[in-house]
Amino acid sequence: GENVEQHPSTLSVQEGDSAVIKCTYSDSASNYFPWYKQELGKRPQLIIDIRSNVGEKKDQRIAVTLNKTAKHFSLHITETQPEDSAVYFCAGHNFNKFYFGSGTKLNVKP
Amino acid sequence: DGGITQSPKYLFRKEGQNVTLSCEQNLNHDAMYWYRQDPGQGLRLIYYSQIVNDFQKGDIAEGYSVSREKKESFPLTVTSAQKNPTAFYLCASSLARETEAFFGQGTRLTVV
């Protein structure tokens, strides 16, 4: 089955700086890669996703890049704000299942 | 909000008891999933279902059981065979193929 690895496990940045979270996956059959944000005690919510026929996707301060050859994808958050503090999960999807990374706890210091 | 509802939000269980967590969605999604979340860990798949009356084991199915008698409902039973059931349980649903998964608000189960 698929194996998704996510780094780093924790990330602390100063407000206004950029944050980058990286994920690798093992199964080349995976074609859909969502990113979720989970605030403390709440449900994960989709913030951005990318499909395998696209190399990059951007939505305001958030962008995701995908390198299918290397089997890795990354989340980029620019101009970070304190409300970006949360746990972020990457995921891959194949064989009718989502495979999640272990999560990155992002702390944005004011 | 969200269209997928889990209940209860908090649940306490005595050791040796079975307990059932509810998950209902009104999004007309075919696929439904149960995940377990432990502190500092990611989401681990317990069971998933693509259509009514069919479901598959995930990575950590031992000690759990599910049913999918209706498209809208996917209840999870935590049995006494589950050795360490205290965790945060998340239910999710999605259209069948490579689309966003929507999560319920979760059930925090504590064994006392």
Structure characterization notes:
In chain A, the strands form two sheets. In chain A, strands 2, 4, 5, 9, 10 and 11 form a six-stranded mixed β-sheet that branches. In chain A, strands 1-3-8-7-6 form a five-stranded antiparallel β-sheet, with no helix packed on it. With 110 residues, chain A is mostly beta strands. Chain A has no helices and eleven strands. In chain A, a hairpin with a 2-residue loop joins strand 9 (86-94) and strand 10. The mean pLDDT of chain A is 94. Chain B is mainly beta and 112 residues long. Chain B has strands spanning 4-7, 10-13, 19-25, 31-37, 43-51, 54-57, 64-66, 76-78, 87-94, 102-103, 107-111. In chain B, the strands form two sheets. In chain B, strands 2, 4, 5, 6, 9, 10 and 11 form a seven-stranded mixed β-sheet that branches. In chain B, strands 1-3-8-7 form a four-stranded antiparallel β-sheet, with no helix packed on it. In chain B, strand 5 (43-51) and strand 6 (54-57) form a beta hairpin. The radius of gyration of chain B is 13 Å and the shape is globular. The A-B interface holds A 1, 6, 9, 31-32, 34, 36, 42-46, 49, 51, 89, 91, 93, 96-103 and B 2, 31, 33, 35, 40-45, 48, 50, 56, 58-59, 90, 92, 94, 96-101, 103-106.
Total beta-strand segments of chain A: 11
Estimate the strand proportion of chain B.
over 45%
Helical content class of chain B: under 10%
Morphology of chain A: globular
Strand content of chain A: over 45%
How is the main sheet of chain A built? 6 strands, mixed
Helical coverage of chain A, percent range? under 10%
Evaluate the radius of gyration of chain A: 13 Å
Instruction: Please tally the helical runs of chain A, counting DSSP H or I stretches of 4 or more residues.
Output: 0
Structural class of chain B: mainly beta
Q: Which structural class should the secondary elements of chain A be placed in?
A: mainly beta
Please supply descriptive tags for the structure shown above:
heterodimer; A: 110 residues; mainly beta; 5-stranded antiparallel beta sheet; 59% strand; globular; B: 112 residues; 7-stranded mixed beta sheet; 4-stranded antiparallel beta sheet; 50% strand
